[in-house]
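Predict the 3D structure for this chain.
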Amino acid sequence: MREYFSRVRHHAYYTKKEWLALLAVSVVSGFVFSFSKWGYVEFDARTGFQNLILYSIYSFLTYFSIDFARKLYAIRIGMRPEFKAWHLGLLIAVLVSFVSNGTMYVLFLSGFFIQRVEHLIYGRRETGFKIIDAAKIGFYGFLGGFIFCVLLSILVPHFPHLKEAMIVNFWIVLYTAIPLDILTRIGDKRAPISNGTVVFTGSRTLSVFALLLLALGYASIFFVQALWFLIVVFFIALIGAAVWLYKNELDI
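Done. Predicted structure below.
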């Protein structure tokens, strides 16, 4: 465990390019979510700008929770995921917002590339990269985004405005769950890989578990809020599943 925390301290960092990518993706997401909130009766630049900043912060926290969870797991197996923005996706998101007047969200904005960290791999019984490794990294991205939403749901009774942050979280996690293989087949080879792509192509069992996690988990959060014990029980079960995945490597 001490070795793992040492790995996290030295390798769970963000490069300047990653911070810029996170910022770009978050601002565009904030623009998409706040597009129809620039004044509720007539145009109000001050209100719109405040909403843009607020939704950008909500988006940033969600993207960060997804990506940092990926890093935490990847470091353990000698990998390092690098957060990437998809530039064409950023443009598409803005254009769709204008065309639909803010009624449609298209958030194919980001993904990641996986790098091997050679000195972290040393000593492992299997040093070759397997698709299941990428699937597990992507799954932990889902897990990070979902856990952040659970934390928001606990705070909502005291801070009702965080309900909007939960909605932002849901849409972002949903779009990261959609496989982006088709994007790389229309000519943009620079499109980063998504959680959905690596999970659904890497392991059928893990993809089913991820779908159940997203469907049942978010349904519990949004529709069973009065029954907090259900959420707490589900949250505990989720942590148990994460620990099981961590210890058993889920070699399927």
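The CA atoms of residues 30 and 52 lie 5 Å apart.
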